[in-house]
Specification:
By secondary structure, the protein is an alpha+beta fold. The protein has two helices and eleven strands; from the N terminus they run E-E-E-E-E-E-H-E-E-E-E-E-H. The protein has a single domain, classed as OB fold (Dihydrolipoamide Acetyltransferase, E2P). It is globular.
Length: 116
């Protein structure tokens, strides 16, 4: 079983080394917009539009990510840096992606938005 830890480059850039085919790719945390759970896989969506599918559950990555990443519902973790506007019961990210938010997380995200 592969053990995954947050990584840091020599110049101080924090990120994750994600397994991709036969090698690992370093993804800076600041480039991750959201993570989407797809059963036993996690889809990383980066700010440049690139998508990386990894064969671990979203819960596995939830514990590795810093506090600015929030799980907004059962299948999605967002980077609050990319939070744009709130709608009724959902939020929109800066790339235009609309995310439904669970009832328990709406107030937490609205508080973050008001502080920013």
């Amino acid at each position: 079983m592969t053990v995954l830890h947050p990584a840091r480059t020599p110049n101080g850039l924090d990120g994750l080394r994600l397994p991709l085919n036969s090698h690992k790719v370093f993804v800076p945390l600041r480039d991750i917009m959201r993570l989407e759970g797809q059963r036993n896989y996690t889809l990383f969506v980066l700010r440049n539009g690139q998508k990386i599918l990894v064969s671990k559950t979203i819960g596995f990555y939830e514990v590795l990510l810093p506090p600015n990443f929030i799980r907004v519902n059962r299948g999605c973790i967002i980077n609050t840096v990319y939070l744009d506007i709130s709608l009724n019961k959902s939020f929109r990210l800066k790339d235009g992606y609309e995310i439904p938010v669970s009832r328990r997380k709406i107030k937490q995200l609205e508080a973050l938005r008001d502080v920013a």
